[in-house]
Amino acid sequence: MSSTSTKPRRPIVVAVVANRTLYHLVMGAISLLYVVPLAWMVMSSFKTKREIFESPFALPSEIDFGVWAEAWDRGDLGGYILNSLLTTVVAVSAILVFALAAAYAFSRFKFRGKALLLAPFALGLLLPVQSYLTAQARLFDSVYLLDTRWVLMISYAGLGLSLAIFLLKSYLDSLPREIFEAARMDGAGDFRTLIQVVMPLMTPALSTVAVFSILSAWNEFLLAMLYVTTDDLRTIPAGLLAFTGRYATDYPMLFAALSMITLPVIAAYAVFHKQVIAGVTEGSVQ
Amino acid sequence: MKPTRAWAPYVLIAPAVLVFAFVVLIPAVANTGLSFASWSGTDTIQFAGLDNYLRAFRDEIYLISYRNTFIYIALTLVLEVLVGLILAGLVTMTGRRTAFYRIAFFVPVTLPMIAIAVLWGFVYSDDIGLINSALRGVGLDSLAKVWLGDPNTALLAISVVSGWIYAGFYMAIFYAALQRIPQHIVEAARLDGAGQWRIFFSVKVPMIRPMIEVAVLLCVTGAFQSFDLFYVMTNGGPDHATEIITTYLVEVVFRYHDLGYGAALATIMTVVVVVIGLVLVKLRTKDGGSGVEY
User: Fold this and answer.
1) Closest alpha carbon to A102 in A159, A167, A187
2) What is the pLDDT of residue A10?
């Protein structure tokens, strides 16, 4: 807009305002495609089944969280959320610690077998989990890991390691070697250098890995459905599906459950949107 | 450099290597072996040679699942990548406040896909569905249909949801690339009298071409891993109209317990994905170098 300021003023200003209005009209219309399904979900959770059928677009006649409470209790959503939290925290912590240690070793040191040990992780970037799912299920079954609290934690950690190691390694590779030489001159051992020198420098890269890993662990469904069958151990995605099966036509309850699962995520995203967008895009484009 | 203690690097990588070997490496190797066997998981394993592979190429449903996967890829290239590119164009029009739109269009990427699948199952539903209600509301009753129950529309309907989720994701990566285009290039085009859209398609898009190629690669390889939407919304139906490779694989292994056959199906899929990935990467580097450096 600033480049037009040398030309005659008034008509341009009118044109710019009209243009801007049109622009926001178009963008607003596109935004509706995102807002309407979510708004419909929340509104329907406050309606009776009859209202959902007869007036899908009307506002609910009253905001009553009774159905939400009922869905929370009967569906044991709290249990699913707790399981998701536990699984995500353990898996993501493991990814961060293990990947940082490994990336540090792969990036900074010469040692025998280095190339041979790093190569398989590239395979992990390339292969989707479906390509070895059959054997993985058998292996987990043979060590009595299926249907335990551990199976998803270990799976998500293992699946997330490859990307985390390569991301962190490329970041470490770009750090000047003087930092490490100076640390050594000061008498710091390899482990102390990792904790006191490398870790503080790696905060941005670690946060990218954390965002990426948290989202994948929180939202993962395929393994969660196949490997965990005890309802008490289910995470949110598999739990939600089980819930949907149990209350197939109790629409207000289903919409309440959906709302309770999606709204906190949207709220968290609203706060951390910068980190989330950066983390997801950097993690995928790598 | 050399570690202060020779064993230090091995201690550092040990946890990662062990977990990775257990979860990915050993299963990946074992899966290839399993693909040459016949096994239900409870009976004894029998060597089956190439039987599983030969059977796969005659398995009509398996072939249909490839056809559907490729249709899905074609649809999502438009609904995710192209729409994402257009959204990126819209949010980078100069002098506009667009932070809200950029943040809003990305929301579905962060939500559990199962929740989205269940929600959109309702949006498409025949009786309470938002789409049919809207169509009936404006008098277009004849267009209302059972979107996910009709073999002609089911795959398209799922692809639309996929676009709803990922268009914002591709917008975000294109947006990041567009931000790195030097301002003076855009200014030069503007001084030459080019309009906003002309600048976008003739100047900006060619400059972010490397990123568009990455997006195509992500979209194509990602499509082979799709599962959640299909499993929840149609589970391959009606009459295999939305059967994709992964839904069929899960059915073979976890419902029919045909482990050897499932392993072979997975191995074939892996080869196809890797070959397509390599071809796309090759195409990129062959005529690359024309784009802007990041």
Assistant:
1) A167
2) 61
Ramachandran region, residue B145 (left: φ > 0; alpha: ψ -120 to 50; beta: rest): beta
Is A194 part of a structural domain of the chain?
yes
Mutation target for A interface from B7, B10, B118, B245: give the one with most A CBs within 10 A.
Answer: B118
Neighbouring CB atoms inside 10 A of A124's CB total 21
Q: Helices A77-108 and A66-74: crossing angle, nearest 10°? A: 70
User: If DSSP codes are grouped into helix, strand and coil, which group holds residue B26?
Assistant: helix
Together in a domain, A90 and A63: no
A-contacting residues of B 78-107, CB under 8 Å?
Answer: 87, 90-91, 93-96, 98, 100-107
Q: Where are the domains of chain B?
A: 67-244
Rounded CA-CA distance A44/A117 in Å is 54
Q: Do A261 and B259 touch (CB under 8 A)?
A: no
Residues A114 and A221 in one domain: yes
Q: Are residues A63 and A82 in the same domain?
A: no
Q: Which domain holds residue A160?
A: 76-246
Contacts of A111 in chain B (CB under 8 A): 3, 6, 9-10
The residue with tokens 């959503």 is: A77
Domain-embedded: residue A89 = yes
A261: nearest Cα among B103, B111, B110: B111
- Please tell me whether residue A86 adopts helix, strand or coil conformation: helix
Read off the pLDDT of residues A164-185 as tens digits, 9 standing for 90 and up. 999 999 999 998 888 888 888 8
To the question of domain B67-244 being in CATH 1.10.3720.10, the answer is yes
What is the interface pTM, i.e. ipTM, of the complex? 0.89
A234: which 2 tokens? 């289910």
B22·A101 Cβ contact <8 A: no
Q: How many domains does chain A have?
A: 2
In-domain check, residue A105 = yes
Residues A175 and A216 in one domain: yes
pLDDT by residue (tens digit) across A45-102? 998 888 888 777 888 888 888 889 999 988 889 999 999 999 999 999 999 999 999 9
The CATH number assigned to the domain holding A214 equals 1.10.3720.10
